[in-house]
Automatic annotation (TrEMBL):
Originating organism: Agromyces bracchium
Top-level taxon of origin: Bacteria
Cleavable signal peptide: none
Domain annotation YchJ-like middle NTF2-like: ranges: 39-132
InterPro entries (alphabetical): NTF2-like_dom_sf (IPR032710), SEC_C_motif (IPR004027), YchJ-like_M (IPR048469)
Annotated protein name in UniProt: YchJ-like middle NTF2-like domain-containing protein
Length: 133
């Protein structure tokens, strides 16, 4: 993992930031370390965790090349607080496409907010984030 050191990385036995209920070592940790996500929702959870821990390299690597930006800056002042998966559509191990709608809560100084997005994923050499609305 290539996380920015201004971000905190959980220990393997800590609860995973994605809110799955599993430990980081059982959930998103292996994905951020290079294991392929078996489903679109698991990729979504691991990408959220990558934002939490500041792992730009993982975020760019899991972004589909057709929509991936050249670079990505993460604000270490933004603290991601929780992830809610609102709904999923397809995105299983045998699907080629998937949709994950989510709400991610954050804090930035005294500001509190929610980022809501319906993300599209495509499976080409593993699951990749395509875009969101």
């Amino acid at each position: 993992m290539d996380a920015d050191r201004t971000f905190a990385t959980p220990t393997d036995d800590a609860r995973c930031p994605c809110g799955s209920g599993s430990t980081y070592g059982e959930c998103c940790g292996p994905l951020l370390a290079g294991r392929a996500a078996p489903t679109a929702v698991q990729l979504m959870r691991s990408r959220y965790t990558a934002f939490v821990v500041g792992d730009r390299v993982y975020l760019l690597a899991t972004w589909h090349p057709s929509t991936r930006p050249d670079r990505l800056e993460l604000d270490p002042e933004v603290r991601w607080r929780s992830l809610e998966i609102v709904r999923t559509e397809r995105g299983g191990p045998l699907d080629r496409e998937g949709v994950v709608e989510f709400a991610a809560r954050y804090a930035h100084g005294d500001e509190r907010g929610v980022q809501r997005e319906t993300s599209r994923f495509i499976r080409e050499e593993g699951w990749r984030y395509l875009d969101g609305a």
